[in-house]
Design brief:
The complex is a heterodimer.
Chain A (H helix, E strand, L loop, with lengths): L12 H10 L1 H7 L3 E5 L3 E7 L5 E8 L2 E2 L2 E2 L5 E4 L2 E7 L3 E7 L3 E5 L3 H22 L7 E5 L6 H14 L5 E4 L12 E6 L26 E5 L9 H21 L1 H6 L1 E4 L12 H9 L4 E5 L2 H11 L9 E4 L10 H17 L9 E6 L4 E5 L2 H6 L18 E4 L9 E8 L5 H6 L2 E11 L4 E6 L8 E5 L18
Parallel strand pairs in A: 10-14, 10-15, 11-14, 15-16, 18-23
Antiparallel strand pairs in A: 1-8, 2-7, 2-9, 3-6, 3-8, 4-5, 4-7, 11-12, 12-13, 17-22, 18-19, 20-21, 20-23, 21-22
Chain B lengths: L14 H12 L7 H13 L4 H14 L2 H17 L4 H7 L1 H11 L2 H14 L15 H21 L74 H24 L4 H19 L4 H17 L14 H5 L34 H12 L6 H7 L8 H12 L6 H10 L26 H11 L13 H7 L16 H7 L5 E2 L6 E2 L3 H22 L1 H4 L10 H6 L10 H17 L5 E3 L6 E3 L6 E3 L1 E3 L4 E5 L1 E3 L5 E3 H11 L7 H9 L7 H6 L11 H7 L4 E2 L2
The chains are: A alpha+beta, B mainly alpha.
């Protein structure tokens, strides 16, 4: 199959990866495949770098990856992935390809706990179904980084969907997107099965997809961590909560299925007395708090929200999976780059064609979201005073495009660029993301790589310190788009 | 649990693999578990193309498994041939004689009776099906019956008190005797029998052998019974049907509330009533009473609460028939051990010698009660009952082994299911039929379970799997204590409860009609998708769509395109259209021929036509036709109309207002500007396009 988007020169890693992905069949022939027998309630843990291809096939028995069952005798290929394939019944895996590490994990008590959490949520959903006025469980997952929060959320979502529920998943971690590039908040009501390789799968595209698409609502969070701008972060939480709450009210199935919220580890800030978590709990009317990893966090949460407190929300301490490993900065950076790349070019299975749009400076309404990290990184800002109605300490500043934007991801908001209200700018959801591929200050032109052939008119374009610049996304050859 | 459903693609897996997998699953089948049998049956149904391998595997399993596990496997066979039918009836029928007889020789008496009951049903059409042919051809079943009759005759000859004693008279009949005595209904009315066991038996009204270990079973009085006042058969049949309905209702309730003691009592009483109805002739009066009571029960919905009953009947109570209130003319048998042997002459037993009879009575009087396990096996409906509860039942039924109608009617009365009979209804001791009273508890319960509708816990469970999935689901409280326990039943709900798996993506479906239909649609969807993806003209130009704005996302109903039918989609689309009508920016007008540009008369901005793939036509989006054929922005129009009816604003507007009001403390200016997309403010055609990216392409 021809992949025009991938045949462009200068795509760097994505090209290598994707073409490798396409020929998995032939490459696995040359590699020796090996069989691994897994006893019931064990798991096969593996860490695969972004340069590696690792293929797993279930030849007998049942196995699942984060709540999604692997189809029998289907090869699944992983790259840039640290995961574990769990079997309740025992299974045999055929493994081929390379991985940084692979081993059999015997400690799966965590999975029993996770499954029991699923059982608790199902019980609550059944209750909600019987008393239709009440909603399903609204779960907040908190914990430090790299303890398996996202894996837990994904497992709970996967099991719920297997059972025919439509849970709404909210991702509040700007470092790792859910159906989106990093730098965003996502809310998605999951109405169809999750994927083994890609988790939540793909957001709507114009063509056919291998698995049913998931439709997210996206907000822009141009900060890598909440403490950078707690006020903006909290306002975005409020906005997300409002939309999600409205959605659940519109749709009884979604309401009964409830809500699961994933958070970044930086959210847990004892110094602010868990200010943001408190805000989250009240905005989303949380009914269950799951803490992972940190005993202190559990105790603090229990004291603050637990049964003895005035909130009286059950707080449970969930085991961290034995396979949860730290993903170092380099890995996270690669993951973020991959998410950005996949937003424009798709995956090897669902490939996409991005489009190139050129705007003159005058046509553009670009705002910069200020944050401490951005201020630190760009000490020399070339600002046109007339274009900046806000003082430099404002959260958003209108600006003229400059070289600083090169390689950055910008969010195209639904709100108009003539918008002068800072809050409207902040709260407006994202229509799409574009990548700044060229800034010509002499000709006063900016070239963007956008996902959609249609231009976005005078909509506001916002960028900030997050996500960081991606240098190798496109080369010079994208002009024809 | 069982039912590792055979892996592999539907077409790809070889028959041998499927057969082996099925055989593996069979190894887990250790008890008469309806879920497992259901699962395995549905697997057999799905893999009918491998019927030969599966049949072979099942046959081998029945032959090789331990005697205690033979019956569940035979029930599975029964379930498969009844629920799936051909080709399994062909494959399994070939060697049915050996399958059946080999098992029969190895199992105990209790199991044998179950097998006999099952055999009986194979000569008849599946209850409730349109098919009029029997499950197995008669020429397949008959040799088995003949062999059974021979075996029992031999047993009878060797020992008159042997366990399986058919009267010699039955040697020539094609039908082996059934434990639920058929003598209650004259053959001409046989069709009133709901489950039709043995109604083609011409001698059915003769008392058949209550087979089994009840020594009384040898007290055979063929031909002695003459039906009392002939009843209109449909009368009896109606009552029986009503009782059956009530029983199934109660069973459903009981399934939901297994700890409701009153419900259990009522269910037991109803089952007993059914037995009586099936095993004894009742006169018009008692029938009337029962009918009245049944209809009251059925109409009330909430059955009458039984009066609190601290203790069940004691044997003493029942030894004195005169003390028992009883409807008149009830076909009530004498009670052997409380009666002088002189009463026996009433019974003309040509082939029984009195000494043997006395010996049996002595045995009875010794209080041979069936053990609890036997009862559990015999009446799976009571499997949930506790030990003491079972003992109660035993006391109730076994305390007077020689009676049943009397004490059961009495216990029905006590449990509030029957009204107390009129005081003047003296019990009649001179009942002509001595027959069914000699049934022991076990055989009574056995007959109970055999006459239960197939929806009960018999070998051919038909509980809807949706319910199945629900019943298998544990309730887990939201606390830390519940967190650590391993609960296989949760895994069951995710795997085995949905045995129907897509071989492409691993998605599972229920083993119901609905599940199968969904899977068929799902496979179609895979096919269509793959076809479209292979078509480079469609897939090459694919690009990511813009994300949804808030209002659209909120109103978007997630559905799984892979399992949604066209009808569902149409309904959803219709519902969406309804909603779209309320959203002015999504209204459109087909562009008049030649017209590509237009100016909105309200805002005087330009409108451009766009091509809608959905409509295959050029349209103006966010447009409305006003009087005089002018095309204006729909949002502008809405704005104008909104101004006119400001006060009546509600519904969808409140949502927008709520969204606009976010950010607490926002002033008027912010409220307006905060949600340019969600408020009903003007949106240009281009704005609307953004939301409709999937459907519109720019000119």
């Amino acid at each position: 199959m021809a992949l025009p988007g991938l045949s462009l020169p200068g795509l760097g890693l994505s090209q290598a990866q994707s073409s490798a992905g396409l020929y998995t069949g032939s490459s696995s022939l040359t590699q020796e495949s090996r069989m691994e027998d897994l006893a019931p309630r064990t798991e096969w843990r593996f860490e695969v770098s972004f340069q590696q291809q690792y293929t797993i096939r279930v030849t007998s028995g049942h196995a699942e990856l984060f709540g999604v069952e692997l189809a029998p005798n289907q090869p699944y290929t992983f790259s840039g992935c640290k995961a574990a394939i769990l079997t309740w019944h025992g299974c045999q895996l055929e493994v081929s390809g390379d991985a940084e590490s692979e081993y059999l994990g015997q400690e799966t008590e965590y999975a029993v706990e996770w499954l029991n959490v699923h059982g608790m949520l199902e019980t609550a959903r059944d209750d909600a179904q019987m008393h239709s006025s009440e909603g399903g469980p609204r779960v907040l997952v908190v914990g430090p980084d790299f303890v398996g929060k996202s894996s837990l959320v994904r497992s709970l979502a996967g099991w719920a969907v297997t059972y025919g529920r439509t849970p709404t998943i909210v991702n509040l971690d700007p470092r790792e997107g859910l159906l989106t590039p990093p730098g965003s908040f996502t809310a998605v009501t999951v109405g169809s099965q999750l994927e083994v390789e890609n988790g939540f799968g793909i957001s709507p595209i114009s063509g056919p997809t291998i698995t049913p698409v998931k439709t997210p609502l996206v907000y822009h969070c141009p900060y890598s961590a909440p403490p950078e701008k707690p006020d903006v972060y909290k306002a975005l939480i409020t906005r997300t909560a409002l939309s999600v709450t409205n959605k659940l009210e519109e749709n009884s199935g979604a309401k009964q299925s409830g809500l699961i919220i994933d958070t970044p580890g930086t959210l847990n800030d004892p110094k602010s007395n868990y200010d943001i978590i408190t805000h989250l709990v009240s905005e989303f009317s949380i009914t269950l708090i799951l803490t992972l990893g940190s005993e202190r966090l559990f105790n603090d949460m229990n004291r603050k929200f637990g049964q003895q407190s005035s909130e009286a929300i059950p707080v449970l301490r969930i085991s961290k999976p034995g396979g949860a490993v730290e993903r170092d900065a380099a890995f996270m950076k690669q993951l973020q780059n991959q998410q950005i790349r996949q937003y424009f070019f798709g995956t090897s299975k669902d490939s996409l064609n991005p489009h190139s749009h050129t705007y003159s400076f005058a046509e553009l309404n670009i705002f910069r979201a200020n944050s401490p990290s951005l201020a630190a990184s760009s000490s020399s800002m070339d600002m046109d005073a007339s274009d900046a109605p806000y003082a430099s300490h404002a959260d958003f500043e209108r600006m003229t495009p400059n070289m600083e934007m090169l390689g950055r991801l910008v969010a195209i908001k639904f709100c108009s660029g003539s918008e002068t209200d800072e809050f409207a700018l902040r709260d407006s959801p994202v229509m799409g993301f574009a990548y700044v591929s060229e800034v010509d200050e002499a000709k006063k032109r900016v070239r963007f790589l956008a996902p959609h052939p249609q231009k976005w008119g005078d909509r506001a374009v916002v960028w900030g310190g997050w996500p960081q610049a991606v240098t190798d996304l496109v080369g010079s050859g994208t002009k024809q788009y | 649990m069982s039912a590792r459903s055979p892996r592999g693609s539907l077409s790809g897996a070889s028959s041998a693999e499927v057969g082996d997998d099925f055989g593996e699953s069979l190894k887990d089948l250790s008890a008469n578990n309806r879920y497992e049998i259901n699962n395995l049956t549905s697997i057999a149904k799905e893999y009918t193309e491998h019927a030969q391998a599966i049949s072979k595997s099942l046959e081998n399993h029945i032959k090789t498994t331990a005697p205690s596990r033979k019956l569940p496997s035979l029930y599975l066979l029964d379930s498969i041939v009844k629920n799936v039918g051909t080709p399994y009836t062909v494959y399994l029928g070939r060697n049915l004689y050996n399958i059946f007889m080999d098992a029969y020789t190895l199992v105990d008496g209790n199991t044998r009776r179950n097998m006999e009951g099952m055999l009986k049903t194979w000569k008849e059409p599946v209850p409730g099906s349109m098919e009029t042919r029997p499950v197995f051809p008669l020429e397949t079943v008959r040799p088995i019956e003949n062999a059974l009759i021979k075996a029992r005759t031999a047993a009878l000859q060797s020992s008159r008190q042997g366990q399986m004693q058919p009267p010699p008279e039955y040697r020539s009949t094609p039908t082996p005797p059934q434990h639920n005595g058929r003598y209650t209904i004259p053959p001409s009315h046989g069709q009133g029998q709901p489950y039709g066991y043995g109604y083609q038996e011409p001698n059915a009204y003769q008392q058949s052998v209550p087979s089994g270990f009840s020594p009384a079973s040898s007290v055979q009085q063929p031909h002695i019974y003459t039906a009392p006042t002939p009843q209109p058969a449909n009368d009896v049949a109606n009552i029986k049907r009503d009782v059956a309905t009530l029983i199934s209702q109660h069973q459903a309730q009981f399934g939901a509330n297994p700890f409701d003691a009153e419900l259990r009592k009522r269910l037991e009483a109803l089952i007993s009533l059914q037995t009586i109805l099936n095993s004894q002739a009742l006169d018009a009066n008692s029938l009337k009473q029962i009918r009245y009571q049944i209809s009251a029960l059925a109409a009330a919905g909430a059955p009458p609460r039984p009066t609190p009953q601290p203790s069940y009947s004691t044997p003493q109570q029942w030894q004195s028939p005169a003390s028992i209130p009883q409807p008149p003319h009830l076909a009530r048998p004498p009670i052997p051990y409380s009666q002088p042997p002189s009463a026996q002459p009433q019974i003309s037993a040509p082939f029984l010698d009195p000494a043997a009879l006395n010996g049996l009575q002595a045995l009875l009087a010794n209080g041979q009660k069936p053990g609890t396990p036997q009862m559990r096996a015999a009446a799976p409906a009571l499997q949930n009952a506790s030990h003491t509860q079972l003992n109660d039942v035993q006391n109730q039924t076994a305390s007077a082994p020689a009676t049943n109608a009397v004490d059961l009617i009495a216990s029905l009365t006590k449990n509030g299911l029957l009204p107390p009979p009129p005081a003047n209804s003296a019990p009649q001791v001179s009942a002509p039929a001595p027959a069914p009273q000699q049934q022991s508890t076990a055989s009574l319960l056995q007959s109970l379970s055999s006459i239960l509708p197939p929806t009960s816990q018999r070998g051919t469970p038909t509980l809807p799997p949706a319910q199945l999935a629900n019943t298998g689901k544990p309730r887990i409280p939201m606390n830390a204590a519940a967190l650590k326990t391993f609960r296989p039943e949760l895994i069951h709900t995710l795997y085995d409860a949905q045995p129907n798996q897509c071989s492409t993506c691993g998605r599972r479906f229920l083993a119901t009609e609905d599940g199968r239909a969904k899977k068929a649609r799902h496979l179609d969807w895979h096919f269509r998708t793959n076809q479209r993806m292979a078509d480079s003209s469609i897939s090459r130009g694919a690009h990511r769509d813009w994300f949804f704005p808030e209002i659209e996302w909120i109103q978007f109903v997630e559905f799984d395109p892979s399992t949604t039918t066209a009808a569902d989609t149409n309904a959803a689309a219709a519902a969406k259209k309804e909603k779209q009508k309320q959203l002015p920016q999504e209204q459109f007008v087909r562009a008049p021929a030649g017209m590509t540009k237009n100016t909105c008369n309200i805002c005087f901005e330009e409108m451009k036509s766009t091509y809608s793939e959905e409509l295959q036509d050029w349209v103006f989006v966010n447009a409305a036709m006003v009087q005089g054929g002018k095309i204006v922005h729909a949002t502008c129009l809405a704005e104008m109309q909104k101004g006119q009816q400001q006060s009546q604003q509600g519904g969808g507007g409140s949502l927008a207002a709520a969204l606009a009001a976010v950010g607490s403390g926002g002033g008027q200016q912010r409220q307006r500007s905060a949600t340019p997309d969600s408020s009903l403010g003007k949106r240009k055609a281009e704005d609307a396009l953004a939301g409709m990216g999937t459907r519109m392409r720019m000119d």
